[in-house]
Amino acid sequence: MPALTLPTLVRTSVRTGAGRAVEIITGVERRRRWRLEEKLRIVAEAEEPGANLTEVARRHDVSRALLWNWRRQVRNGELALPTTAQFLPVQMVAEAPAMPAEPLALPRRQPAVAGDAVIEIGLPDGTTVRVGRDVGAVALRRVLGALRG
Fold first, then answer.
1. Is pLDDT of 3 > 70?
2. For residue 43, what pLDDT is reported?
3. Domain boundary assignment for the chain
4. Tell me, what DSSP letter sits at residue 48?
5. CA 27 from chain center: how many Å?
């Protein structure tokens, strides 16, 4: 007698008081999870001219009823690959604009007066942000948060 393993199904017939036989099947459920691509490939095979639905179902070890449901879902648009791809218009440029030979000169800073305490932040695009000494902590946090994006 072979050893019982977890995937082994055990069938037992039991008679009820009314004389009816009831079959009890215990064991691990054999239920396969099908990926969307697999479902669509199998449905496409079943839709080919001259294809036999029963043979396609048997070849892929799927029930005819499930294959029939997949076919209906494809026809109703309920079973399809997601169409999230979006295209943007592209323009081709013959040549890139020429870069200046010399870097742009930055404006000279004004000499600071002893009473003028200023925080100066230079951004990569050339913009300069200056904040006075009497700026509040909340306002400074807002400015720094805006710079961080």
1. no
2. 94
3. 33-81, 118-148
4. S
5. 35
Tell me the fold of 33-81.
Arc Repressor Mutant, subunit A (1.10.10)
d(CA 127, CA 119): 14
Q: Which helix (H) or strand (E) holds 38?
A: helix 36-47
User: 3-state class of 13 per DSSP?
Assistant: strand
Q: Which pLDDT band holds residue 137 (cuts at 50, 70, 90)?
A: confident
Both structure tokens of 91: 């323009």
Looking at every residue in the chain, the average pLDDT score rounds to: 76
String of DSSP letters for 77-135: TSS--------------SSPPPPPSSPPPPPPPPPPPTT--EEEEE-TTS-EEEEETT-
Q: 0.70 cut: is pTM over it?
A: no
The residues, any chain, with a CB within 8 Å of residue 140's CB and separated by 6 or more, are 119, 131
Helix 36-47 × helix 64-75 angle, to 10°: 90
